[in-house]
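Thread title: Can someone regenerate the structure for this chain?

I was given the following input by a collaborator and told the matching structure tokens would be attached. They weren't. Posting the sequence so someone can regenerate them.
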Amino acid sequence: MTDTRFDFTAVALSLLGLLALWWAAAWLGDDPSVLPTPAEVWVIFRAEMASGEMQLHFFATLLRVAAAFALAMGIGCVIGLIMGLNATINRWFSTWLVVLLNVPALVVIVLCYLWIGLNEVAAITAVALNKTAMVAVAIREGVHALDPRLRDMAQVFGMRPSARLRHVILPQLWPYIATSTRNGLAIIWKIVLVVEFLGRSNGIGFQIHLYFQLFETGYVLAYALSFVAFMLLIEFTLLRALETRATQWRQVSA
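Best answer:
Regenerated them for you:
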């Protein structure tokens, strides 16, 4: 069984190694306009925090990510469960998922802006649509991989559908849900940046667009890495804790 316990020392050393590599590349390049050092980016970050610009755009992006993530995970999990449990529905609608998976995110974003308008509804809808199909596919495959012995046990004991879902199906689906959550957060926030880049007046993507036009690499890195740091915090606190609690049944039965 794979050990999923959090190793703070390994994570810290790994991040320090990445930081050292960045510093060495900046030193060798010797051109802050192309690749500034971590110290220079940190100075920019502190200045943006002091002015309040960083918080303003960070939370605008965070709200869009949270709304799109909640929609994509909620709708995708329901679709995946239904398709996984019902072979007829899966046979007729699996092609729809393939189509949605292969429509480029940029096309979905542009169409949502054209059809709905340059507003928050269009932005969040575009991001959620891009991720929903991925979640549905992952959950559907998880349902197909459920242990039939546990299903038979639930039937023998006469468990109600709600109890079966909570105590038999969801614990087995957690690895698939966790994978969808990790991938979802990573993909959704990147798509949000594109949405903000193309049609919003605030957010990290908007700021990256602004400083791209000004060729300010340090500001681009400061805004981008602020959200990367937040995603790392979510990964090593919330997601790891939920994963550990949800997979305790596997450790007990091993």
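The first helix runs from residue 8 to 29.
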